[in-house]
Request: fold
Amino acid sequence: MELCKTISEIRQWLQDWDNIGFVPTMGYLHAGHLSLVKTARKETEHVVVSIYVNPSQFAPNEDLASYPRDLTRDLKLLQELNVDAIFFPDDREMYPRGFKTWIKVDKITQILCGKSRPTHFQGVTTIVSKLLNIIEPEKMFMGEKDFQQLVVLKQMAQDLNFKTEIVGCPIIREKDGLAMSSRNKFLSSQNRKNALCLYHSLQKAQEMFDEGIRDSHKIIRTMTKIIERSNCKIDYIEAVNPFTLEHQDHLQKGDRVLLAVFIDGTRLIDNREIR
Ligand code: AMP
Reply:
C-alpha cells in the first residue's frame, strides 16, 4: 500500500494504473467507509482512498478542530482491505498560499443542509474537484448517508464534464439502526440512546407510507414528535424527490425522507428511501 502525502507522489503511482476506484474520506474510518472500499475493490482494479479533513467545508463555529482523527488505525484498516494507495495531504498541499478558486453548485446547495451550513457544499465541491483532477478515477464511491452531497456532486460532475462515474452506496448502520458516522463518537451513552430517534422516525415514515398515507406534512409532523420526545433539536426534516431534491407534498415510492438533528451540540444526519 503506497502512502502519499503530496500530489506529485500520488501522481507518480497513478501513471501506471488504469481503472481506478476512488473513495474520498475525512478519516476516523468505520464500517460505512470500509463498505465503500470493498465495493471499489470489486468494481475497479486499483483502489485509492483519500484521508483529508477539509477545512473549507467547516464554518468557523463548527467542529473542525475537534473532528476525530486516528491515522494509524485508519491505515491499518485500509491495509487489511488491500487498498493500493492512500492520499493524505496536509492543508498546505491542498490550499497553498494564494489559493483563489472555488466551485459552486447553485440552488441545491442552499436547501436542506445548505440552509444551516451555507458555505459547506462549496467546500465539498471544491475539494472533490481537486481530488478528481489529481486522481482521475474511473469511479468514485460515496455513501447515501450524505444524500444531498451525493446529488450535489453528481450535478457538478455532469455540469463540469468530469469523466468519473459517481457511484452511490447504501447506508451502513449499527445493529440498532443508528447510521454509522465518525461524529457518533461525540455522543454520551444517554445521547447515543436518544440518537436512535433519527432511525426510528425514518422507519415510522415508511410505516405510514405502507399504511397508505401520502401527505408528507402529516408524516413529517409525526417524525417531529418522535424526535422532540428524545430531547433532540431538529435542524430540518424534509421529503424530497431523489434527483432534484425538490420538496414533495405527496410522497411517492422512490422519494427520500431526509433529516438533520442536533443532539447536545452534535449534528447528525440520516435519510431513507421510501419503498
Ligand atoms: P466522511 O469521512 O464522513 O466525509 O465520509 C466519507 C464517505 O463515507 C462519504 O461518501 C460518506 O457518505 C460515506 N459514509 C459515511 N458514513 C457512512 C455510512 N454510515 N454508510 C455508508 N457510507 C458512509
User: Anything to note?
Assistant: The radius of gyration is 19 Å. Residues 25-26, 32-33, 35-36, 142-143, 145-146, 169, 171-172, 179-182 surround adenosine monophosphate (CB under 6 Å).
